[in-house]
Amino acid sequence: EYARRAGADVHVLPVGSDNFLEIEIEGRQLFFRVGKEAHHKDGDNAVLSVNVNRLHVFDKQDSQSLIWQKV
Fold first, then answer.
1. What band does 7 get if pLDDT is binned at 50, 70 and 90?
2. What values do phi and psi take at 44, rounded to 5?
3. Please, are residues 67 and 55 in contact by the beta-carbon 8 Å criterion?
4. Which residue, 45, 5, 44, 12, is CA-closest to 31?
């Protein structure tokens, strides 16, 4: 299952061999790890298709997963 979202004002964050995109969507800052084939530049607009089955969501306060809760 994929979700499509458009974001404005992309910032590219190179971290080692990975690239992360910081994108504001609906007033929230989100970070996405993208493949090497993605060629975004700072200030670009982006439309992303996200595989929600591979999505990782963390609590900003304690960095705990919001999807995989401890039992």
1. low
2. -65, 160
3. yes
4. 12
